[in-house]
Hints:
Blueprint: H1 8-11, H2 17-24, H3 31-35, H4 47-60, H5 65-74, H6 76-81, H7 89-98, H8 100-116, E1 125-133, E2 141-143, H9 144-156, H10 164-187, E3 191-193, E4 200-203, E5 209-220, H11 221-224, E6 227-229, E7 240-242, H12 251-254, E8 262-266
Antiparallel strand pairs: 1-5, 2-3, 4-5, 5-8, 6-7
Helix pairs in contact: 5-7, 9-10
Amino acid sequence: MSLVHGTPVDAVPPDQVTWKVNSSIELFDLTELRSKSSPLGRRGFDPAHLLGPLLLGSITRVHSAPEIERRLQTDSAFRLLSGGHEISAEAFRTFWRTYLLFFNRCVTRTIELAVEHSYVDLEQTALDSVRLEADAAGASIRTMERSEKMVKQLTAKDTSDLSPEQREQHDARLKKHTLAVKHCRNTDMTNFSATDPLAALKKFPHGGSRPGHRLTTVVQARRFGSASRLACRQSRRITASCGRRSRPCAPECAAQGSQMTSLSKSP
């Protein structure tokens, strides 16, 4: 769809799912998000203008923030939901990461709406477990085994001959591994990511291990074909897929990727 700058309202057909997404955003309370935004500076975008393109991308399988950024320059549908703004990929990533609790509430609200509109039939559901790569570097992983070993080595090290700079580095490393051991014991985890507390080291099909999440998805097979919503504070992709083939989604469900939900998550 080509973009007519300044007139996305006229460019988007009335039967486009974009309008359902636009109206569905009003079902979610954005008061808290708007209270943290500002008409100036980096938080100058209305949260609805960030949320809309993310939801439309989730439905249309445009999952990467850079691709959404490009669509805002060429696609009237995305342009309409962004309020006419050209928003950067990093702004979308920051929005997604910052408001974890809000997105979790959105998932919960989507399930409630789906139940209210009889889109959920527990006799026609199936469970599956998936792994989602986290938006965290491998270097951010702290393991209980290694940190305990490092604490012993650093504690036993004689620091009397170290220069002030070396002593400072030594103390910083000791503190890092001490905190890692404490976190693992408090959370009963063997490893975790320092930049994403919900992530942990996971084995992926390509054979390597990376920070990731394990999620349990619920699939509504009869009506939706295959549908899953992987809601995660820091994912490399905003992952969603829908195989809905029968009647069109209700507006309430359309805004959340046609009833795409994740009901539980374990690190």
